[in-house]
Amino acid sequence: MAEKILPNLYGIEIPLPNNPLQATNSYVIKDSSRSLIIDTAMNREECKRAMLSGLDEIGVDLDKTDFFITHMHADHCGLVASLTPKKPTLYCSRLASIDIDGLSKPEYWEKLKFLGRICGFPEEELRLAVNKHPGYRFRPRGQMNFKIIKDKDMISAGG
Length: 159
Hints:
By secondary structure, the chain is an alpha/beta fold. The protein has helices spanning 45-58, 74-77, 94-103, 106-118, 123-132, 134-137, and strands at 2-6, 9-15, 23-29, 35-38, 65-68, 89-92, 145-148. The chain has a 7-stranded mixed beta sheet with strand order 1-2-3-4-5-6-7. The radius of gyration is 17 Å and the shape is globular.
């Protein structure tokens, strides 16, 4: 369910089933020309249904929507590439773009396992740890069009 916070600003609480965090807060700046979604939640069907329901409730057209992701954790960026069949425009920092892009690549997770091996972790424990990790299970899947923002950059949204 979407909650109107201010004119053109809405909050959507996205439940995170079986997760100690319980929910992610996503924010939407709605505009007739282009809307902006801030953080998306994990890439899982329950989250996607809640997000799409909230967006439908406030009349957001995903074909006219960009995304702003605050950081690379899956509970903030996981859904970004799954909400639209098009390659979404994603505003984030340079470091976040590297991390978000990395989450979807096998090399990222292999590097983590390599570091675990160096620290003496058994192979089977590393495999299980990665396979159970929410960052791996609920990561973004698909291509994204990153727009890098820096300190003091301004993004216009919501009229």
